[in-house]
Design goal:
Number of helices: 20
Helix content: over 70%
Oligomer: single chain
Order of helices and strands: HHHHHHHHHHHHHHHHHHHH
Number of strands: 0
Strand content: under 5%
């Protein structure tokens, strides 16, 4: 290549990058890359989950209007409650006894600051880009669910026997069954809404519709208890909204009929659901009768809740500190062990109670502000993706401390930024978003 050609090519290439930066497309495409990496990471690759926030922060810094956007970001109310939780973690360093755990938590919980920042500062995604990310989440979960169902169907009798003993199949990508069930429920509700929007081409609507059917089927056939309970609670809320608020009586009546018939049909026709129901009642009975509960998950959770309530009463204001919650639980088990062997002394398995133990009344108040604070804003309260996401999470967190495991923490923080922070930002810029903008 002649020297003159090389010299002319360099400025041209530099000019392209400068144009991308000035137009905001560089920031926008980096944010899209971060979102895709986040979704793929949640479904299959934990390494991509760790890299996605880094890419997102670079996307925020690449915004050519960063200085102008900073004051607007600071006025977003949805970024302050997560920052408050992180500030409480910093404050707990003054009284923590578990320094190695505290330092690890400082790094692990950085997404409380980083994810709202990147969705508040980076150039926003277009409607089509947001729809594409949502479709990847829904269709991807349906494919993993179908593969997991295929694994179950290889030997359903053995799988049902495992369910009878309190064990559930994880996904084929090794997502723990509680988190996988919640993700399937989220995908079903999101996909049902998305399939009716004109933004999607016909083939994608078909794919989304089939994905919803697959997610619902997998939830029931594999008897993912937490996901099913959360889904039926949200359906109950939808039925009440249809009847009492929207005055759509036929829809409300149909939802109520589905709520009545769905569990009954599943119980009568699916061996997995039948075994799960009877195992649940038998599990609870062991705790009530004071029997050996070492092999029963719900009974161990009840023991953990009683243990945690003792700690919460002793440290009502700021709790024992997020880093010290595990040590405090194990110490209390030493006083009353409920007959549990050391390896079966489980953590709290309730996010609200966990916040009360680790952060006291202050920590619980901040967490409730994260979870329900967005619903105070009318634009967010009317957004079906926002309130369904929050309600599903709120119900699921009654049965597990979802923020304590990395995958469910990443799931919550990513969708919080993608759905809630981004929705508040759009609402402040455009007070009347179109239905497609709500994706």
């Amino acid at each position: 290549m002649p020297a003159s050609s090389r010299l002319s090519a360099a400025p041209t290439s530099l000019a392209v990058w400068q144009e991308w930066w000035r137009s905001g497309r560089l920031s926008q495409h980096l944010l899209l890359l971060a979102c895709v990496a986040g979704v793929v990471g949640l479904l299959a690759s934990r390494a991509l989950v760790a890299l996605a926030p880094v890419t997102g922060v670079v996307a925020a810094l690449a915004n050519p209007g960063l200085r102008r956007q900073l004051p607007r970001w600071l006025r977003l109310r949805t970024v302050w409650a997560p920052a408050g939780l992180y500030a409480l973690l910093l404050l707990s360093g003054l009284y923590t006894h578990e320094w190695p755990v505290w330092r690890h938590e400082l790094f692990r919980q950085l997404p409380w600051l980083g994810v709202p920042l990147l969705f508040g500062l980076a150039v926003p995604l277009t409607e089509r880009q947001r729809f594409g990310v949502g479709s990847l989440f829904v269709v991807g979960l349906a494919l993993i669910g179908a593969a997991t169902l295929g694994q179950y169907l290889r030997d359903p009798a053995a799988a049902n026997e495992a369910i009878r003993l309190g064990h559930n199949l994880p996904s084929v990508t090794r997502i723990f069954h509680i988190h996988f069930g919640l993700m399937l429920a989220l995908a079903a509700f999101f996909g049902f809404r998305m399939v009716r929007q004109p933004l999607a081409p016909r083939w994608l609507r078909v794919a989304l519709g089939l994905s919803v059917v697959v997610c619902v089927a997998v939830l029931h056939i594999l008897a993912y208890r937490t996901g099913l309970i959360a889904a039926y609670v949200v359906l109950s809320v939808e039925a009440l909204l249809a009847l009492l608020v929207r005055r759509r009586y036929w829809l409300g009546a149909a939802l109520l009929l589905g709520l009545a018939l769905g569990p009954w049909v599943a119980y009568r026709t699916l061996g997995s659901v039948y075994e799960r129901v009877h195992a649940t009642f038998y599990d609870l009975e062991q705790f009530e009768l004071g029997h050996d509960i070492n092999d029963f998950s719900l009974s161990r959770r009840l023991a953990a809740w009683q243990t945690a309530s003792v700690i919460a009463r002793r440290h009502p204001v700021l709790g024992v500190g997020p880093a010290d919650a595990y040590a405090a639980m194990m110490h209390q088990y030493d006083w009353r062990d409920y007959g549990l062997r050391p390896e079966n002394r489980v953590m709290i398995h309730n996010q609200y109670l966990h916040q009360l133990v680790s952060g006291g009344a202050v920590g619980l108040a901040l967490w409730l502000l994260v979870l329900f604070g967005p619903l105070v804003q009318p634009a967010l309260r009317r957004n079906p993706y926002v309130y369904r996401f929050l309600l599903l999470q709120a119900v699921a967190m009654l049965a597990d401390s979802l923020l304590q495991l990395q995958i469910s923490f990443n799931l919550f923080v990513f969708l919080y930024g993608f759905l809630i922070v981004a929705a508040e930002r759009r609402a402040k810029q455009s007070p009347k978003p179109s239905p497609a903008q709500m994706v």
